[in-house]
Amino acid sequence: MTSHYDKSKNCRVGTMDEKQFQAEAGKASGSYFKTLIGVWTKKGGTLKWGAGGVGLRGSIKGKEVGICFLAPAYATKKDRIELSLNALAKQIGAPRCEALKKALQKAAGDQMKGASMVSILEPGELSASGQKSLTSALCKLL
Q1: Taking all residues of the chain, what is their mean pLDDT, rounded to a whole number?
Q2: Which one-letter DSSP state was computed for residue 15?
Q3: Rounded Cα distance, 124 and 33, in Å
Q4: Which domain does 69 fall in, by range?
Q5: Is 35 strand, coil or helix?
Q6: How many domains are contained in the chain?
Q7: CATH number of 38's domain
Q8: Average pLDDT over residues 26-38
Q9: pLDDT tops 90 at residue 5
């Protein structure tokens, strides 16, 4: 079932696919997301589609781990990449997580919001070098 808002449950239900994801994302972020997904899967990462977007997953020490979530604009939220640094630190270790956080901050600047639960807003609006650095920082985890 295509992802849609269910008023009785007060949330999105169903499963989004790439076509719906691209239709809901802004033009710039949609293009960046497509590039990121391509690089991610080429490097061996996997995808998990959900009601509100797609999770980027990877094998860390032989275990599949959710790294981040890509979400198109919805309601009052902008196109974004979301990740929980606290949860990720448990999976990849605090030093690697801290290095990731610094790399994300450098790549995204003030488009990165939050400290432990992080959102990178409108990643398609970053400079070309910022997008490349963001992709590189995430893909280093694979």
Answers
A1: 94
A2: B
A3: 8
A4: 4-139
A5: helix
A6: 1
A7: 3.90.1150
A8: 97
A9: no
Cα–Cα distance for residue pair 108/132, rounded to 1 Å: 10
Q: What is the CA radius of gyration of the chain?
A: 15
Res 76: pLDDT:
84
The length of the chain is 142
Within 10 angstroms of residue 15's Cβ, the number of other Cβ atoms is 15
* Residue type (1 letter), 9: K
The rounded distance, in Å, linking the Cα atoms of 85 and 68 is 9
Predicted local confidence at residue 61, as pLDDT: 83
Q: Looking at residues 15-37, what average pLDDT do you find? A: 95
CA distance 70 to 15: 14
Measured between alpha carbons, how far is 132 from 97 in angstroms, rounded to an integer? 19
Within 8 A by CB and 6+ apart from 116, the residues are 84, 85, 86
Alpha carbon 126 to chain centroid, angstroms: 15
pLDDT in tens, 73-99: 987 899 999 999 999 999 999 999 999
